[in-house]
Every structure is written in structure tokens, then in C-alpha cells.
Amino acid sequence: MSTQTQTWTFKGSEGDFELKDPHLTSYLYFPLVNEAGMMSSITPSLHGDIKSGHNTFLSEPVSAESLHNSRAARNFWVHNQEFGPWSCTGNSAVQHASRLDKETEGGDKVTLEAGLLWHKVIRNNTRIGLRAETVSFVPAGADRVELMKVTLTNTGNRKLTLTPTAAVPLYARSADDLRDHRHVTSLLHRIYTSAGGIEVQPSLSFDERGHRVNKTAYSVLGSEGDGGKPAGFFPIAERFIGEGGNYDWPEAIVRNDVPHSGPGEALEGFEAVGAIRFAEAVLQPGESKSYIVAMAITDDRMDEDRLWKTYMSEASFDHLLGACKAYWREKADAVQFHSANKEFDLWMKWVTLQPILRRLCGNSFMPHHDYGRGGRGWRDLWQDCLALMIMEPEEVRQLLSDNFAGVRIDGSNATIIGRLPGEFVADRNNIPRVWMDHGAWPFLTVLLYLNQSGDLNFLLQEQTYFRDAFVNRCRERDDSWTPESGNLLRTTNGEIYRGTILEHMLLQHLTPFYLVGEHNHMRLEGADWNDGLDMAADRGESVAFTAFYAGNLRDLASVLRKLERRTGTAAAKLAEEMLVLLDSLGEPADYDSVSAKHELLNRYFERIAGGVSGRKTAISLVSLAEDLERKASWIENHIRTSEWVTSESGSSWFNGYYNNDGERVEGDHPEGVRMTLTGQVFPIMSGVAAEEQIPSVIQAVDRHLLDEEIGYRLNSRFGGIQQNLGRAFGFAFGHKENGAMFSHMTVMYANALYKRGFVKEGKAVLDSIYSLCADFPKSRIYPGIPEYINEQGRGMYHYLTGSASWLLLTELMEVYGVKGDLGDLLLQPKLSGEQFDEAGKAAVVTQFAGRRLRVVYINEERKEYGDRQAGSCLLNGKPARVEPAAGGCLLSRALIKSLPEEGVHELCLKLI
Ligand code: G1P
């Protein structure tokens, strides 16, 4: 076993980093992607797959456990008469055999350098006197291409004669074929050699879509640095490898065979490999020579001339690499933090990039994410918008509006999200499932949008509703619906029905308000945020998310009051059927009565059975706000008083759940205290937890969930598999949704603490996450935040996680306190004293109202939050007109808008 304790270190100011001996860490991978849809993962030994979608894998699909599979590795061999074969990527049987032998290490010393979004491995072999530098990236253009440049340098003092061969196995088909007809689908392969490389265009594709004529082609091209063509090819995998050989010791390389093919050949029916032989090279001491390899996925046979001109020379490569770096730098620079901790600021660059990676890859296509087809779930769709609002704000309004087309008239939503914006698909598997938290996230995202933009009229914009066979929150089927009738809700007259965004959000909150379990909290239904709580659909309740909904109801009411005051809109038109849900407008319901709630909800469901009338009633915004406030207050009071548990040891906190036997989940238990972090986060964040309850919750979390080794756990050890709660407890304790440090929830815990003014405690939580991630010898991940940290401290499911959006948001809007207030700009820094640099300065560059701003806080005495107040505020060096706000100040949108659109404007707030 390796005992390596090296860690990565940042170089420069762009987030570039270096790691020694990267190949001595398993499961380490890095993303290379572009907007055109190329998605590659790459390890220090250049393993990892290359694809543009579930059905179009250029190399064999891998998951974390098969990352060492050489059938999904880029290789570049050199053969020398004296030393035999040597792999520039470290993938020869000899190098593998000596990898863990510290003494020999195959003679190789390896260093990794990487940045946004490029990857370089430097491999030095002193015995041969050869260094190979391999740079990989995916150009930022419109092609689905991954490029690799290998530079060989003679580091010895003798002339070296080398025969180079690039070798990239070409899987060239759908991920489905990995197990399903792997061999038969190789018979579909049509393999072509050309002047520059090898191309595979399978004749048909066999996958979930059926057997179809296939057009997609997969190719590997190779050139010398000056654009020189290859010397020949080994296109057929089994001949390249040889009988008894394998990709780590291929016969064609080991025996230094002459190429099996020249250009212009057509072959068929075999597994293929992009194995490209270059002419023998002679390197004098100190001399270097470069080769370019391109891996491309094209919609039809490649246009080789165009690809060659665009990519196949060292000059093009270097130029495109520069453009790629600039592209990602600009993305990551959308938000730039400056604090006393430079390392943390650089680490945040990687976190900032992660929401974009998730937009591009969904929850699939990185080695740990070995599931799904690239789609995102409903919850993630909305959460990813949070960060995109900061990173890529231009298209957010449309995106949000489109997403509301997924809401059903019963307040639930479609769970299969189509490829196009606003496209939602009926679940062909007919698995009716409602995640009870789904209705809560859209409002949170919309509220952020309203605050950032001041665009209150967005609430009154209209959108369609989703319709399929499921009705009454998936508890019943309406067999009168057929796929042919389409996924748009129609009125009883057959017209497409549209309601305001406000109406959509009201339904998302009002239906769960009435759908309560026996303890009068919202039913858990299929699950909540924790996908793993999926076995309590009958009697389970989620107190945690009931609190979240309560906070939303109160915030929505407040927004409605502002809509009325600011725009003079007195009323909103709502579907007449839903008035029954706004009971306070007529006969107020008894919220203490579970049966009264159910009866009321059923009345609504009866009214909408078979469609809506299309008639609307105008409701005064103030009355609407009052109704929502009444509901919010009832929930707040109910949770505060009935769900406050105290253990024998004296800790007190909120119970977050009831299980399928109707039993309270949290509190003392013969097998130890049972507690969840989720159950604490949402009462705090939503304002349901009374101010005086928060210190007790913090103490209880520290006592029962904080682990010295892996930080804040998602839950304590319950023991047993909890068949009355969910599959999560089938996972080993300390992993994934069973007691790992699940970044998303931990970041939301920090966010909630900051929001409620518990700044010191919130900072401790953020610090803990950062230390766990940046502790490379334990976390074994590159900079960035993973989905979770497991029991061993390893970072898991790196890159694609909603926690990145939340961390970015929490840093910007809570820690640095730069946020919108219905269109105006609020500066409310909650930075702690030590976060200011030696000059007492902390700063963040961000975008607001279409202007780039650099917000600088000066806190010369590095005073703590709470001990300081806002002093003077300068805008581009001149006193700015501001209104005081708790701990900071408010600047009008008009003032920000009056600034020129170009350049970065400096806002400097003194803290005294
Ligand atoms: C993932 C899912 C998210 C879900 C969470 C807990 O979190 O993407 O929807 O709520 O697991 O089950 P993420 O990977 O975004 O951190």
C-alpha cells in the first residue's frame, strides 16, 4: 500500500495546482468538458472514459471501481531497442508491477499539473533518460473533441531512438452495450483508416431506443507536432493486443511490429483501437519532439481535412489550449474572493466552476456517477439555477419560467426532465412517486431571482401545467389520459390552461400544507431531500421540510405585500377551483384537525378531477398574504412546541421525522441517540426555530453529529436497516445518506446559521468542510467540494453536487453579504475578523444589475461581526448614497444601473 502524504499545492492566481505522485492515489479523476457536449474524465494515468452522452461513448464506460480498466485509457507508447516498451502514461505491465514498489517505481517520477480545465502529467524515467509530458484538454469550441499532446524529451546524455505509437481503444457505442450484446455490437463496427487516423462508424446502434441506422462516428487522429502524418495503423484490437496479450502489454508494441494497416482501408466486425504508429524518432540529448492525438465524436463520418487543419499541429494545440484556459477562467472569474486565506480563495475557484460542470454533465458521466443518462432531477434543476444566477445570469428568467411547466395542477411535478428547456416527459416506467420537498425549492430559487432582479412582475407571468396519468399527488391514476393527449393541462373545453408563476408556487405549497400525517406534519410521501428516506410513504412525515414550507409561506406572503405596494397590483387572478385551499378567505379551517385538512384537500382534488374550468377569480394580494401568514404561523407554533425533543443526556433539538409506523424518529433510543442534521437545518433556516432554541440545537449537533474525523454527519448511527424509514440505512454507516458528511446538508446548515446571525458557529461549519476537502492525504480529491466525505475521510462523487451551488451562494451572500433585496443591493458582511488580510481588507468581485462590481470591505482593526458597524461607503472613490442596513448598507438599483456597463466598479465599505 502507498503511504504517500503529498498534497496538492496551488501555483499562481488562477487555481492551477500541482501534485507529486498523483498515480499513487486511486479513484482520482478530473473533468474535461465543453459546451458542445464532450465529457471526459481523466486520471493521472490517463484512464477514464470519453463520451458525449449515454449512447455515444468513444471509450468504454467506467465507474470508479473500473477506473484502472485499460480499455478506457489513452496510451502513448515508445519502443526502444535497448529498453523495450515504455508507456508515457504509465500504463505498461512493467510500470504497473513496480508502481507500489517505492524503490523502483519503474524508474518513473510522476507529477501532475492541472488548471481550469486542462490536465498535464509529467513522467520522468531516469534509467531511459526520457521525460514525457502529456497535456489533455477539451477545446472550448463547437466540436466534440478531446486533444492530447505528448512531448518527449531526451533527458539523458545519449542519443535515443524511439518508435512512438498512440493507442486509444475505441468502444464507439452506447453504454447499454457494455453488458448487453458487447460482442454482437462489435459486429456492427465499420472501421476506416485514413491518412491521419482511424474512424469507427457502427452500422446500427443497439440500445434502449431500439435498433437504428447509426450515423455517429468515433475517431482517433494522430499527427507529429509539425502536422506530419502517421506512419501506419493497428486498427483491430485483437491483432494489436495479440493472442494472450492485453492493452498493458500489447504484442504489436512489445514486438515493435510494423503497422498492420496503411491509410484508406475499410475493415469490419471487430473491436477497434485507435492505435497510430509514428515514424521512428531520433532524439539527441536535450532534444524534444511532440505529437498530437485527437479523439472526436462526430454526427456522421468526420470531415478529416477540417479536423486536421483545426487541431492537428502543435501550434493549433497551444493556441486552443490558451483559448480553453481563457474560456474557463472567465467562467470562474464571475465570482472572485479575496480574503486572508489565499488557499481557500483559490479552492473556491474550483467550487465556482462546479455548478457549470453539473449543468453540462447532470448527475452522470463522472466515474462515481455511474448511473443515469445525464439528466438532472427536479430538485437539482432548481438548485443549479441558484448558482447560475450568479455565474450566468442572462438566461435565468426564461429558464425559471420554463421549469414551471413541469408543475402539475395538484402541486406535484413531472420527474423526468426532457432535453429542451421546459420539456417534461411522462414517466414511461409508470412509477408514481412524489418527493415531498419538490414544491419548496422553486420558490427559494424564485425568491433569489426576485431579490437579485427586483422583477416582481415575474410572479404574474403565465405558464402551462404538466399533465400525465397521475393525479392527486400520484395517489391515483386517471386512465382517461393517454400519451396522445399530450403533456399539457387543458381546460374542460380542451384549451391549453395557463396560470401565473404565482399560482404554480401557491399550489406547490398549499397542497402539501393539507396533506399531513397523523402528527399534523406534511407527509413524507415518496421521500424528501434525502432520496434515501423512501420507505415511509404511508405514515412517514417530514417535520424538516414542513418547516421549510412554513418559511416559504411567510416569505411568499411578504413578497406579495411588496408586489402590491411597489407595483400597485391589487389582486392576482387564480384558478377558481383553488379558492378552497385559501380557506381564510371564506370559512377558516381548523388547522389542528388532520381530518379537516384532508377533507379540504379532497374537495380541491374533486374539483380538478378531469381538468380545470379555465375560469379565474381575482384575489386581493393582501388577503392572500394573510392566508399564507396564518398557515405559516400555525406550522411554526406546531413545530416549536411539539417537535422539541430532549434527550436523557440533556441535549435538546428538533425531531425531523416520523417513520412508517408513525413513530418519532429522533431522540433517545436503546441503540443510542438518533438525530438528523436535516431536522435541524430547515427549522433554523426557515425561521421556525425560535432564536433561543438555536444554541441548544448547535450544542446537540456538536455532541451527536460532529465527528472529529469526518465532520458534521448527516445523521447519528441508528443501527439496523430501518425498513420503516428508508433505504439509506441499508448503506454502511458513515457513507452517503447514512451518516456521511453530506456536503449539501452541511453547507445548508452553515447557511442557516449565518442567516440567523450565528456567524462564529456558521464559520466553524464551513471551515470544517474546507479542511476535510483540502486534506488530500485523507480526502484524495483535487480542489473542490465532493458530494460527501465517507467514513474513511475520502471525498466521494467529486464535482457533480448541489453543494457547490450552495457553498458559492453562502460565501457570496452570507459570508461576504453581497445580495439583492428586491432589486437593490445589500452589503451585509458577516466575515469574521481573521478573514480580513493584513491590511484589514476583504473583497469579492461579482455581478449585480448587469454591472461588474468589486466590493471591498475595510476593517482595519479586524473587528468581529457584531462588534463593528458600517462606516462610509465609496463608489469608484466617491461617497455613495446609501441607506443604513443592519451591519451594512443598502444601495439603490438605480445607482448601480447608472454605472457604465463596461469595466469593474469598486464599492468600498468601511467597517468601524
Ligand atoms: C444528491 C442529489 C440531491 C439529493 C441528495 C440527497 O445530492 O443530487 O438531489 O437531494 O443527493 O439524497 P448532491 O449530489 O447534489 O450533493
Automatic annotation (TrEMBL):
| Superkingdom assignment | Bacteria
Q: Which GO terms describe its biological process?
A: carbohydrate metabolic process
* MF GO annotations: carbohydrate binding; glycosyltransferase activity
What Pfam families does the record tag this protein with? GH94_b-supersand (PF06165), Glyco_hydro_94 (PF17167)
Q: Which SUPFAM superfamilies match?
A: Galactose mutarotase-like, Six-hairpin glycosidases
Where's the Glycosyl hydrolase 94 catalytic domain? Answer: 627-807
Tell me the ranges covered by the Glycosyl hydrolase 94 supersandwich domain, including all copies. 126-312
Keywords (alphabetical) are: Glycosyltransferase, Transferase
Q: Which InterPro entries match?
A: 6-hairpin_glycosidase_sf (IPR008928), 6hp_glycosidase-like_sf (IPR012341), Gal_mutarotase_sf_dom (IPR011013), GH65_N (IPR037018), GH94_catalytic (IPR033432), GH94_Enzymes (IPR052047), Glyco_hydrolase_94_b-supersand (IPR010383)
Indicate what this protein is called per its UniProt record: Cellobiose phosphorylase
Organism of provenance = Paenibacillus stellifer
